[in-house]
């Protein structure tokens, strides 16, 4: 199942003096099973695009087709959209509300029509997929958990609904470095095990480089670039012109290259960078 976005336009306050075009005739396709990163400066249109992909906003023009369903069509049923597209908002733990973890994670599946047994099984699987012990945590209040555990439970509540597309808006915002890395590894593991489309919005360029197959760069409501991380991050000047930085690893390698060190300036992966620098230090490559 893929996603096709055709000529999508969204204008806030259309017809009024302070109208604003947030999405300007954008089109792209996402192949089944791809891990897509979306980057862009504040106000570039990222959040508006996400809310269209989840059916929270309707476009002024254009269509979004998820699999065989046009989720922008007149009469599209929100429950059907929710079955296909799961959305993890920024700081999703603020939306926890039930008295136990099990009830919170089961809430979405029950609302989609699963019976109690099916919802419980789905909740158990989701909680274990995010790296928590179901038997230890299911009857605890979600409000007693640590920040990282709350974030995991919030994500579990979305994946328990078994979406074919998982959208995550800054899922590591506000977390300490260990929890940040843990959440991203969980997302990567989920993506590989489920084979669904995963869409990650992040201001962390290294995360985008490390995990994504393709990168969409938004600028002023348009798609400025769409390609592999290697292709996108090779366009340093264009990205800087949009107020975006390179991943730290790539920035380091480019600085070394500019200083006359014979390294591959396009390296994005920290392990590859380490190996290249190690070879230099060993004297096996000339500086």
Task: Itemize the secondary structure elements and their pairings.
Blueprint lengths: L2 E10 L7 E11 L4 E6 L5 H8 L7 E6 L2 E2 L7 H7 E4 L12 H11 L4 H14 L4 H4 L9 H13 L5 E5 L7 H18 L2 E5 L3 H7 L2 E6 L2 E6 L1 H5 L2 H6 L6 H11 L11 H13 L5
Parallel strand pairs: 3-8, 3-9, 6-7, 7-8
Antiparallel strand pairs: 1-2, 1-4, 4-5, 9-10
Helix pairs in contact: 3-4, 3-6, 4-6
Question: In words, what does this structure look like?
Answer:
The chain is α/β, with parallel strands linked by helices. It has a domain at about 245-285. Helix content is about 40%, strand content about 20%. The chain has twelve helices and ten strands. The strands form two sheets. It has a six-stranded mixed beta sheet, sandwiched between helices. It has a four-stranded antiparallel beta sheet with strand order 2-1-4-5, with helices on one face. α3 crosses α4, α3 runs parallel beside α6 and α4 crosses α6.
Taking all Cα atoms into account, the compactness measure Rg is 21 Å
Please tally the helical runs, counting DSSP H or I stretches of 4 or more residues.
Answer: 12
Note poorly predicted spans.
none
Q: How many runs of DSSP E, i.e. beta strands?
A: 10
**Quaternary:** single chain
Structural class: alpha/beta
Helix and strand run: EEEHEEHEHHHHEHEHEEHHHH
Largest sheet: 6 strands, mixed
The amount of beta strand, in percent, is 15-25%
Q: How far apart are the first and last residues' alpha carbons, in Å?
A: 48 Å
Give the integer mean of the pLDDT values.
Answer: 91
Net shape: globular
């Amino acid at each position: 199942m893929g996603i096709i976005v055709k000529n999508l336009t969204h204008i806030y306050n259309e017809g009024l003096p302070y109208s604003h075009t947030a999405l300007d005739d954008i089109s792209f396709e996402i192949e089944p099973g791809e891990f897509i990163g979306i980057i862009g400066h504040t106000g570039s249109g990222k959040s508006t695009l996400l809310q269209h992909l989840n059916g929270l906003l309707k476009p002024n023009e254009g269509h979004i087709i998820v699999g065989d369903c046009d989720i922008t069509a007149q009469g599209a049923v929100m429950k059907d959209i929710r079955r296909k597209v799961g959305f993890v908002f920024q700081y999703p733990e603020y939306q926890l509300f039930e008295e136990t973890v099990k009830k919170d994670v089961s809430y979405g599946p029950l609302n989609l029509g699963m019976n109690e047994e099916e919802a419980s099984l789905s909740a158990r699987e989701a909680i274990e997929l995010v790296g928590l012990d179901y038997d230890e945590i299911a009857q605890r209040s979600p409000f007693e958990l640590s920040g990282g555990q709350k974030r995991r439970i919030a994500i579990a509540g979305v994946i328990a609904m078994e979406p074919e597309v998982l959208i995550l808006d800054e899922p590591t915002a506000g977390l300490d470095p260990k929890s940040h890395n843990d959440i991203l590894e969980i997302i990567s593991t989920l993506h590989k095990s489920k084979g669904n489309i995963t869409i990650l919005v992040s201001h962390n360029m290294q995360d985008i480089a490390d995990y994504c197959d393709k990168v969409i760069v938004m600028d002023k409501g348009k798609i400025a670039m769409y390609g592999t991380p290697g292709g996108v991050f090779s366009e340093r000047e264009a990205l800087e012109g949009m107020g975006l930085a390179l991943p730290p690893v790539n920035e380091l390698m480019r600085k070394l290259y500019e200083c006359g060190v014979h390294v591959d300036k396009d390296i994005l992966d920290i392990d590859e960078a380490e190996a290249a620098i190690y070879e230099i230090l060993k004297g096996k490559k000339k500086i």
